[in-house]
Q: What sequence folds into this?
């Protein structure tokens, strides 16, 4: 079990198309477990392998901690997922992304999708997803094709978000930072000398 570093936009890796998984072995199962650890650590509801720098068509999702959850406490691992059907009815959701810390924008997508994928045992599954899970799964499948949520919004808004992230990157806001050993009590320390803003991103 490990928490993996998440790639923050803008980064060319996030624009790269991932390759199909050819063998579902122990390394894939370990990756899935680490992706869940990483996702829960950042309070996310979905994560694609590309976001931790692994260009494999694989995603994890669990929306159970969200009030809107339509399936409680269920962990999904989708390998080589393919949308085989989507609804004509659309849904707007204010999306965020662990690769775009603290950035949100309304994105319109089909309200429901049917997805064919392989599970961690290598068995083919086909499942219909609705509600927040439908949004989440479509967002993650986009990642596997090098598409990020801001590609769905106006270029004006997109540029604004990218500019903000570039600036924060330059300030070292997303640099690896070991909270366990930095010796600061983040819950009370408002003027410590780290570059990140208290209460943001690192979620403490
Ligand atoms: Ni994302």
A:
């Amino acid at each position: 079990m490990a928490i993996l570093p998440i790639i923050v936009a803008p980064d060319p890796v996030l624009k790269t198309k991932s390759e199909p998984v050819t063998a579902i072995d122990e390394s894939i199962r370990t990756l899935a477990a680490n992706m869940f650890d990483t996702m829960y650590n950042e309070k996310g509801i979905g994560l694609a392998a590309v976001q931790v720098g692994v260009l494999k068509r694989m995603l994890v999702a669990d929306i159970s901690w969200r009030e809107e959850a339509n399936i409680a406490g269920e962990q999904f691992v989708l390998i080589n997922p393919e949308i085989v059907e989507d609804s004509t009815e659309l849904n707007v959701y204010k999306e965020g992304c662990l690769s775009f810390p603290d950035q949100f924008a309304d994105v319109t997508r089909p309200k429901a999708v049917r997805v064919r994928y392989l599970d961690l045992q290598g068995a083919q599954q086909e499942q219909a997803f609705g509600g927040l899970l439908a949004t989440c799964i479509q967002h993650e499948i986009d990642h596997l094709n090098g598409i990020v949520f801001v590609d769905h919004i106006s270029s004006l808004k997109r540029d604004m978000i990218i500019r903000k992230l570039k600036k924060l990157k330059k300030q070292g806001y997303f640099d690896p930072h070991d909270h366990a050993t930095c010796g600061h009590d983040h819950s009370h320390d408002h003027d410590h000398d780290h570059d990140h803003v208290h209460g943001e991103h690192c979620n403490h």
Q: What stands out?
A: Helices lie at 26-41, 131-144, 155-170. The chain has three helices and seven strands. The two ends are 21 Å apart (CA to CA). Residues 14 and 159 are 16 Å apart (CA to CA).
